[in-house]
Amino acid sequence: MGLSKEYGFLSEIGLGSRNLGCYVNGAWKGNGPVVSSSNPANNQVIAEVVEASTQDYEEGMQACSEAAKIWMQVPAPKRGDIVRQIGDALRAKLHQLGRLVSLEMGKILPEGIGEVQEIIDMCDFSVGLSRQLNGSIIPSERPNHIMMEMWNPLGIVGVITAFNFPCAVLGWNACIALVCGNCVVWKGAPTTPLITIAMTKLVAGVLEKNNLPGAIFTSFCGGAEIGQAIAKDRRIPLVSFTGSSKVGLMVQQTVNERYGKCLLELSGNNAIVVMDDADIQLAVRSVLFAAVGTAGQRCTTCRRLLLHESIYQKVLDQLVDVYKQVKIGDPLEKGTLLGPLHTSDSRKNFEKGIEIIKSQGGKIVIGGSVIESEGNFVEPTIVEISPNANVVKEELFAPVLYVMKFKTLKEAIEINNSVPQGLSSSIFTRRPEIIFKWTGPHGSDCGIVNVNIPTNGAEIGGAFGGEKATGGGREAGSDSWKQYMRRSTCTINYGNELPLAQGINFG
After folding, report:
1. CATH 3.50.50.60: does it fit domain 5-266+471-487?
2. Superfamily, domain 270-460
3. How is the chain split into domains, by residue range?
4. pTM of the prediction?
5. Is 405 in contact with 384 (CB distance < 8 Å)?
6. How far is CA 52 from each of CA 19, 28, 183, 195, 403, rounded to the nearest angstrom?
7. What is the mean pLDDT of each run of 10 residues along the chain (507 residues)?
8. Which residues are known to be catalytic?
């Protein structure tokens, strides 16, 4: 049985009706369970995938370990050129890959294409970085001595990604890990295996064209057992994990037990604060994108809206008006702003969440119901609720926005900082004293602290990540590359004497 006519474009990116889900030692295989990938807009099967077995994993890791010895000796600018070619290959298939992201994950087509564009941008960033992996010269207190810092590859970086950004998060990690001289082992989300395979085929083609070992980039479709194997594997010095705080904590504990390093991108519970002097129209547009975009399934989705009491009703009324205009439907159709939740379980969690919200005093202003259809559609929802309600402290991965009022900036900052998570935050104001209070030591405690823009839509040039239960990891830009390398402090004595540091005399 071949692909259905509507999915025919998948053949342009190397996919068929049944696909092997492991790329190990430069070859495709799969000896694990056969799973189906479904379209969340109608829950119909798109194609089948043969997942990895534990034997496939071990074979892949043995080959990857050997490939690491070769890859780390390739000069960094040459590694950068390989990543440049990956970016070019992505450009050639941008629209097909973006369409696949939209089809399999459920986000609207502009967001699907934007996600693939984000990897292209990361490739460009990493190409430049490949010539800037600079160490330092440090003044020595001892005569005829020089101190310097050297940065060397870790060897292998494990990347475990989530369904909501099924390929962009790989790009944040893999592009930098590769130019830093590391091989990459990727386990994509179990519910987006076609994206994992399509992305891997593209990277594999570049490696093959350059006569490089395919094992430099090793990937697996599979469930929790493959993720656990990566977390336990001493051959993988760094594991990057994106997902829930609960699972992330277990991954961290497993990796810590073997003295490995973790890079965690976990839950978000992000707030937008709107002050009394804010540009209300700008704020409303921002909240719409932040709360409704990706059907509320971004880790940077705005989940809490804090409105100054003097403008509370005005902002809320305008927001309700724009919510009424949101087009819900097939994410591949032009004009759709809200696609389906990713799985039928996600829709059930939305229903459970609404019941809990009501039981804790939440008042539904608009939305609050599932939409009867073949797919996993729900209504974008606004809730008036107390910031002290327990449900507000948790992340409901759906388009549900909690609205609350405040009197002072101090109170707004306290509410913003009162949740366990600390990923993204934003304030709308024109006053410099508020801006610098918000971004300073007594302001937002998040890793991303914005002013007059939404909580989501981060650029790749800055380090992405958060504090507290968000995990503390940083990916993409700035100096995030340092996490993918080991630092050596080197002292060289080029004289004939042996002066000791701190003026110590010994013997």
Report:
1. no
2. Aldehyde Dehydrogenase; Chain A, domain 2 (3.40.309.10)
3. 5-266+471-487, 270-460
4. 0.96
5. no
6. 12, 10, 19, 15, 44
7. 83 97 98 98 97 98 98 98 98 98 98 98 98 96 96 98 98 98 98 98 98 98 97 98 97 98 97 98 98 98 98 98 98 97 97 98 98 97 97 97 98 98 98 98 98 96 97 96 97 95 88
8. 265
